[in-house]
Design brief:
The chain is about 30% helix and about 15% strand. The protein contains 6 helices and 6 strands. InterPro entries: Glutathione_peroxidase, GPX_AS, Thioredoxin-like_sf, Thioredoxin_domain.
């Protein structure tokens, strides 16, 4: 009887040791590919002169993207945008303007007319891109990135009006959305630039 008890105890001990938790292999659903978060660096656009502008050339810089208009009550923001650009461009900031005619037809001009207006009235030297749509079915791909959380990883947003600002960090990731009426000289914006 002792032998049977001893044998049963050994079998029980062996069985319990065999079923102890062992490191399990990580299960990955191979049917669902990992989606890399998009960055601003994937975009190539044209500037007002028709030249290619590759956002990949801005790696390591902070980028402020602004939809602009020449006939808007907020148009005087060009002055502060240019001043901030001049002050911080050598410290890693690039401001990129995208003229858009989505709000009350306040940017009706051609690219040439827009370039002349910006230069003559505000001395704009920051990069100005080809006129695009910033909302609706014909929204430019770069604005789809800026306004859709599924693409930018931060938040969904709508372009509210002319001169909305999208702040992109040095890694090409959307970091903040600033309303059109908030000036580029606002402490929130300047603190982001300086950080």
């Amino acid at each position: 009887m002792k032998n049977v008890l001893l044998l049963a105890s050994c079998a029980l001990l062996l069985f319990s040791c065999k079923n102890q938790a062992q490191p399990q292999k990580s299960e990955t659903n191979m049917s669902t590919p990992l989606v890399a978060k998009e960055t601003i660096y994937q975009f190539k656009v044209e500037d007002l002169s028709g030249n290619s502008f590759d956002f990949a050339s801005l790696k390591g810089k902070k980028i402020m993207i602004v939809n602009t208009a020449s006939k808007c009550g907020l148009t005087p923001q060009y002055k502060d945008l240019e001043a901030v650009y001049k002050e911080y461009k050598d410290k890693g900031l690039v401001i990129v303007g995208f003229p858009a005619n989505n709000f009350a037809s306040q940017e009706p001009g051609t690219n040439e007319e827009i370039a002349t207006f910006c230069q003559m009235n505000y001395g704009v030297t920051f990069p100005m891109m080809d006129k695009v749509s910033v909302k609706g079915d014909d929204m430019a791909a770069i604005y789809q990135f800026l306004t859709q959380k599924a693409k930018n990883g931060l938040q969904d947003s709508s372009v509210e009006w002319n001169f909305q600002k999208y702040l992109v960090n040095e890694k090409g990731e959307l970091e903040k959305v600033i309303s059109p009426k908030t000036l580029v000289t606002d402490p929130e914006v300047l603190n982001w630039i300086k950080a």
